[in-house]
Design a protein that fits this description.
- With 327 residues, this protein is α/β, with parallel strands linked by helices.
- It has helices at 2-16, 20-27, 36-46, 69-76, 92-99, 125-130, 161-178, 183-209, 226-232, 250-263, 277-286, 309-326, and strands at residues 29-35, 50-56, 80-83, 105-107, 114-115, 136-137, 217-219, 235-237, 267-271, 290-294.
- Strand 3 (80-83), helix 5 and strand 4 form a beta-alpha-beta unit.
- The longest helix is centred in the middle third of the chain and has 27 residues, at 183-209.
- The termini are far apart.
- The structure holds zinc ion.
- The site of zinc ion has 7 residues, from loops.
Length: 327
């Protein structure tokens, strides 16, 4: 299978070579990505056949993003719009309507293993931790597009590398549908990037294995790492839920501090997309030292330590492991 795809890509490249630069430049696929992590996946799949515009850029918080007037024009002229889905992009519906776009809106989490948001029932992440990561939803839930229960699922599915591989496959499918001539290239790119994702996942598992099991409870500001917890066995507690939209109450914070003491949390981290103040307060009340910055819902800018998805995941596990084992 892989050999066939690669061969096809090579033949395609050879036969189209003389005309390729000007044709590609004239016919690049216009792709809009809702946020930075998806843009990075799209770049890896699309290569130089696509032009990508990112709505919520590096270090941006998509939960609370307010679209700019220019965003409607950008979406309106797109060939393909790539989004996470699972109500991560609260701004999306209104923006798509305002743009009157004809482009397909492709929900990349579709078909993935989706975790239910246990907060939906009025509990906090303490409850999810007690259940061992929350319930699973069937992959087909994406068909229920009519529902508007805010936050029914945990949207941060990219924090599992396994799901990231699905995002990449969904992007290749979407690009093939929009640009059949480039399909062999997209499939070959997706496959070689998929191999890097496989290697990344093995690295994360090896790093977690070096952390003693009784030290695998850590704190972040919002509940963005449920998939990481589910896949890799690090337990995350957070004062804020799966969306940064609503702030943690005083009683949420008090309950969390109690739980941090009970569970003997090993480290506490700030996130690039959230205000560090609350985490600093919890750190000082519990005597935990802030172990660094994790990248949850956005990449860093290109000079930062998480400019790509691969760098982000490596940075996160290295920072987590370093803070736990160093303390
Ligand atoms: Zn989030």
């Amino acid at each position: 299978m892989s050999r066939t795809l690669k061969l096809a890509a090579v033949i395609g490249a050879i036969t189209s070579l003389p005309m390729a630069p000007s044709v590609a430049a004239a016919e690049n696929l216009k792709v809009v990505a809702s946020f930075s992590i998806i843009a990075d996946f799209a770049k890896n799949v699309g290569g130089d056949r696509v032009d990508i515009v990112t709505l919520v850029g590096p270090n941006g918080d998509a939960h609370v993003y307010e679209p700019k007037p220019a965003d409607a024009a950008t979406v309106g002229s797109a060939d393909v719009v790539l989004v996470n889905g699972l109500q991560f992009e609260g701004f999306l519906q209104r923006l798509v309507e305002a743009s009157a776009t004809k482009a397909p809106i492709v929900e990349l989490s579709k078909g993935g293993e989706v975790l239910r948001n246990s907060e939906e029932e009025g509990h906090h992440d303490q409850e999810k931790a007690a259940e061992g990561g929350g319930g699973h939803a069937a992959a087909e839930e994406g068909h229920e597009e009519g529902h508007h229960h805010h936050g029914e699922y945990d949207p941060h599915a990219w924090q599992s590398v396994h799901n990231a591989e699905l995002y990449v496959k969904n992007i290749a499918d979407a690009f093939c549908a929009a640009d059949a001539a480039g399909c062999d290239t997209y499939r070959a790119n997706a496959e070689s990037y998929g191999q890097q994702l496989d290697a990344l996942e093995a690295e994360i598992k090896a790093a977690v294995a070096e952390i003693p099991e009784d030290k695998r409870t850590i704190i972040t500001s919002h509940d963005a790492f449920g998939y990481f917890e589910h896949e890799y066995g690090i337990k995350f507690l957070a004062p804020e839920g799966v969306s940064t939209e609503s702030e943690a109450s005083a009683s949420d914070v008090a309950a969390l501090i109690k739980q941090i003491r009970q569970d003997k949390a090993s480290a506490i981290f700030v996130e690039n997309v959230t205000n560090p103040r609350l985490i600093e307060q919890i750190a000082s009340e519990t005597g935990l030292k802030v172990g660094g910055e994790l990248y949850s819902d956005a990449l860093s800018d290109k000079d930062g330590s998480a400019a790509t998805y691969l760098e982000m995941m490596r940075h996160n596990i290295t920072t987590i492991k370093g803070a736990i084992l160093g303390s």
